[in-house]
Structures are given as structure tokens and as C-alpha cells.
Amino acid sequence: MKEAQARILIIEDDSAIGEMLKTILEFSNYKVAVSDEPLQAKESIKNFKADLVILDVRLSGVDGTEVCAQLKKDDELSHVPILMMSALTGIQTTCKNAGADGFIAKPFEMDELLKTVQQVLASQRSKTS
Prior knowledge:
With 129 residues, the protein is of the alpha/beta class. It has helices spanning 15-27, 41-48, 64-73, 92-97, 110-128; strands at 7-11, 31-35, 52-56, 58-59, 62-63, 82-86, 102-105. Helix 1 (15-27) links the parallel strand 1 (7-11) and strand 2 (31-35).
């Protein structure tokens, strides 16, 4: 039996990065949606039925770590893993403290991105099974 495709929501306000991530992940057989609306994250996750969220730290006018913390406090969505990404150095601890399940430093290697996504999804499956 073929495993169901994981659904990944990318919240990124740089459309070029969002589209690049979408292409990489779709090439690896994930179902992907891109949103540039961090304040609509809750609705986007529910509507897309996301299994994983990739969230940029720096979003226009919004701190991604605050979005992450809000999502992790939401009983309906707290189980959805969040992978944060940033080019800022030393932000990893801040992301972890906000509840992020993983971190990707920009710029990243394609293999590193896919490996991190697989690890977070596998970890989530082992928690729910």
C-alpha cells in the first residue's frame, strides 16, 4: 500500500522562495500549498488539512516565532508540526522556545530540507500512532 502523501503548508512572504520550496517538495511527492498570509495561518492549516507547516521567521510585518507560538497554544492545531526557517544567525533557540518542531537555516541544501521534513513527519507519526 502506498503511503498517503503528506500535506505541507509553506508560509513565506517571498514568492520566489515559496515557489522554489513548493517545487522541491512536490518533486518529492508531497502535496504543497503556499501562503503569504501569516495572520491567516490557522485558517490555512485547517482548510488545507496540513500535516506540516514550514514557517519563515521574518514575514512582512509579522514575527514568525509569534505565529508559531500562537499555533502551538491552539488545542485544535498544536499537534501540527512546525518547521521554522530563517537566514538570521542565532535564531534557532528562539524558534525552539516558540514551539517549533525543527529549524532550517537559509540558504539550505535541497537534501537537507527534504531530510529535515522527513524527520519531522516521521517523529509526528510516531507520536500519533
